[in-house]
Design goal:
- InterPro entries: Ala_racemase/Decarboxylase_C (IPR009006), DAP_deCOOHase_LysA (IPR002986), De-COase2_C (IPR022643), De-COase2_CS (IPR022657), De-COase2_N (IPR022644), De-COase2_pyr-phos_BS (IPR022653), Orn/DAP/Arg_de-COase (IPR000183), PLP-binding_barrel (IPR029066).
- Its cofactor is pyridoxal 5'-phosphate.
- It holds the Pfam family Orn_DAP_Arg_deC.
- By secondary structure, the protein is of the alpha/beta class.
- The protein has two domains: about 5-35 and about 290-425, Lyase, Ornithine Decarboxylase, Chain A, domain 1, CATH 2.40.37; about 35-290, TIM Barrel.
- Helix content is about 30%, strand content about 25%.
- Strands 4, 17, 18, 19, 20, 21, 22, 23 and 24 form a nine-stranded mixed beta sheet that branches. It has an eight-stranded parallel barrel with strand order 5-6-7-8-9-13-15-16, surrounded by seven helices.
- The structure holds ligand LLP.
- Ligand LLP binds near residues 201 and 328.
Length: about 425
């Protein structure tokens, strides 16, 4: 986060507030989100893409009413992928025309709510859904703007991409075998749909632009086929999200302006070669906007030194507030932030308080050997897919999200209570 500082005593401040004060006021574990940093990242994406393109923040990374208001104010659009995300967006006043609805199995209720609200875009993910959305729109007497999500045969994973003949996963409609062309054909025959473009999302935590280039090229190829077959030039392309962030110093993320330049150039070049009008581009970054803006603050409870192995440092949260290490082998760093220490670094594993040995937050970390109960540890870059994937495993109470700005912390998602848990238990 851009406004995190460490003073001479090793005490970390964020947005002008020190972590001890934050821990006293808001408790631990808690996520602290730097609002100024979030807004600055939104602006960087908007400015990089300019007025000729749209930036849809992917709400799955982290969504709350405050986030929706910041996005609205900073001129971003919003990608939602469930009724819950849609409800949050509408409740917090995001204009419906700036919302896109995603998902590989949207329910009839979700589609109906989206069409009724007047969302700007529904991204169609299957042949059944083309018909389903068309019927719902027709029943409501509306014409719904839609895109078709295609799978371009590029599988992107962290640092590299692997081009595959066919993608063995659940999303989208394959370009291969003429499936996507057939989907376009069907969508164009339905009066209650206005097909505006093609969507492609290739993966997540990607650093290499090559996968996006292949994706853009193949999407433009489809637009060319559509023009040749139907005499229609679809006016939009969405290249999805997936831009990586730095979790450790090994990660080297691209800046928004580099991404915008690379994508803009490739789309323009391919369209010019095909004699197509350059479509309006949109992208859907989630992690790249919110990921770096937050850290999780934990308090150490126990320290267990295993001779010749490592030291297990247990904190007051765990896989219920950050599942990413257990689920994806994700790498995080950790720092002692409540004081300075000259003690020797020791090989540590930061673990949670859940009832399984896979409950790991940071697999390998060097922490000062005098780390002790009561110390505060911060795990940076937890803004994306941590609170949004948090669970109540072991009836853990999900931590709050505190927005820090203007020298004050403000709870934007409050800590769960035992009452919250018991309220749902009506047996
Ligand atoms: N657009 C679509 C259609 C997506 O499916 C996703 C992410 C995004 C945009 C945003 O991707 P981002 O820019 O945030 O990488 N839970 C995983 C990540 C799953 C991403 C799913 N889709 C994680 O914690 O790494």
């Amino acid at each position: 986060s851009r406004t995190v500082r460490r003073d001479a005593d090793g005490l970390v401040t964020v947005g002008g507030l020190d972590v001890k004060t934050l821990a006293e006021e808001f408790g631990t574990p808690a996520y602290f989100l730097d609002e100024d940093d979030f807004r600055a990242r939104c602006r960087a994406w908007r400015e990089a893409f300019g007025t000729g393109a749209d930036v849809y923040y992917a709400g799955k990374a982290f969504l709350s009413r405050a986030v929706v208001r910041w996005l609205t104010e900073e001129g971003l659009n919003l990608d939602v992928c469930s009724g819950g995300e849609l409800a949050t967006a509408l409740d917090a006043g995001m204009p419906a025309e700036r919302i896109a609805l995603h998902g590989n199995n949207k329910s009839t209720e979700e589609i109906t709510r989206a069409v009724e609200a007047g969302v700007g875009r529904i991204v169609l993910d299957s042949f059944q859904e083309i018909v389903r959305v068309a019927h719902i729109a027709q029943r409501l007497g509306k014409q719904q703007r839609v895109q078709i999500r295609v799978t371009v045969g590029v599988e992107a994973h962290t640092h590299e991409f692997i081009a595959t003949a066919h993608e063995d996963q659940k999303f989208g409609i394959a370009l291969a075998g003429g499936q996507a062309a057939e989907a376009v054909r069907r969508a164009l025959t339905l009066d209650s749909l206005e097909l505006t473009g093609i969507h492609s999302h290739i993966g997540s935590q990607i650093f290499d632009m090559a996968g996006f280039e292949v994706s853009a090229r193949r999407v433009v190829q489809l637009l060319t086929e559509v023009r040749d077959e139907h005499g229609v030039e679809l006016p939009e392309i969405d290249l999805g999200g997936g831009l990586g962030i730095a979790y450790t110093s090994d990660d080297d993320p691209r800046e928004p302006h580099e991404i915008a330049k690379a994508l803009g150039e490739i789309v323009t070049k391919e369209c010019e070669a095909a004699g197509l009008r350059v479509p309006r581009l949109s992208v859907e970054p989630g992690r790249a906007i919110v990921g770096p803006t937050a850290f999780t603050l934990y308090e150490v409870g126990t320290v267990k030194e295993l001779e010749g192995l490592r030291t297990y440092v247990s904190v007051d949260g765990g896989m219920s507030d950050n599942i990413r290490t257990a689920l994806y082998d994700a790498e995080y760093t950790v720092a002692l932030v409540s004081r300075t220490s000259d003690a020797e670094p020791m090989l540590s594993r930061v673990v949670g308080k859940h009832c399984e040995s896979g409950d790991i937050i940071v697999r390998d970390a060097f922490l000062p050997s005098d780390v002790a109960p009561g110390d505060l540890l911060a795990v940076p870059a937890t803004g994306a897919y941590c609170r949004s994937m948090a669970s109540n495993y072991n009836h853990a109470l999900r931590p709050p999200v505190v927005a820090v700005a203007g020298g004050a912390g403000r709870v934007i998602v409050r800590r769960e209570t035992e009452e919250d848990l018991l309220r749902l238990d009506v047996g």
